[in-house]
């Protein structure tokens, strides 16, 4: 059975690497506020696509009986598999106030779960400085190279006291963006889009979240 799975995976890999992106992640955000209405932290949820989840569980030797369930020991091993960040990596998450980028802490409170063939992980990050009430925070989840596609398809909410306005904005699907998508589809799997004149392509493809909290 394992040999058959290896053959299937090899075939799927050859097919999936025909174009960008290669990994798909349903993403959710939870902004955490203080009693004064300041945004202090963001909890990030990543739910990986079934194919990538299968690759990870197979590579780590998890779910050996193939029942789609992981033991507590296996979940402990899985937890943090996507947190081995190199120095300078921003976690594929950018937060801005106007034109100013807001630094975020390293990930904390890491969790992992597995259900219906998909891995879901969460981690918490603190804003270097709390976002004052009344200011609009703009967040984008994206990989600049577009190797990984982050879709803000999971809940985006605020936890804490006070009233906050949360708005999602999809990327504007104009002729320029359609042309970029067509160019991406023709790229060799191992080619970096920036090498062919498509810098920061992930940012252009990404939607954004705009959050403003009133003072308590």
From TrEMBL:
It comes from the Bacteria. This is DUF1007 family protein. It comes from Sulfitobacter aestuarii. The keyword Heme does not apply. The keyword Signal applies. Residues 1-18 form the signal peptide. Keywords: Signal.
């Amino acid at each position: 059975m394992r040999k058959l799975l290896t053959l299937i995976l090899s075939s799927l890999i050859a097919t999936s690497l025909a174009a960008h992106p290669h990994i798909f992640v349903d993403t959710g955000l939870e902004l955490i506020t203080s009693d004064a209405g300041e945004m202090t932290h963001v909890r990030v949820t990543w739910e990986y696509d079934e194919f990538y989840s299968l690759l990870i569980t197979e590579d780590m030797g998890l779910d050996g009986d193939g029942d789609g369930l992981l033991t507590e020991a296996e979940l402990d091993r899985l937890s943090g598999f996507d947190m081995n960040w190199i120095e300078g990596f921003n976690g594929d998450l950018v937060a801005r106030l106007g034109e100013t980028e807001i630094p975020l802490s390293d990930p904390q409170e890491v969790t992992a779960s597995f259900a219906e063939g998909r891995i879901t992980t969460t981690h918490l990050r603190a804003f270097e400085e709390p976002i004052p009430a009344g200011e609009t925070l703009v967040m984008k989840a994206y990989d600049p190279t577009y190797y990984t596609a982050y879709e803000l398809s999971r809940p985006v909410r605020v936890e804490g006291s006070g009233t906050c306005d949360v708005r999602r904005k999809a990327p504007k699907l104009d002729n320029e963006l359609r042309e970029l998508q067509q160019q991406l589809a023709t790229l060799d799997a191992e080619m970096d889009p920036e090498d062919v004149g498509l810098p920061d392509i992930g940012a252009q493809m990404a939607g954004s979240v705009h959050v403003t909290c009133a003072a308590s």
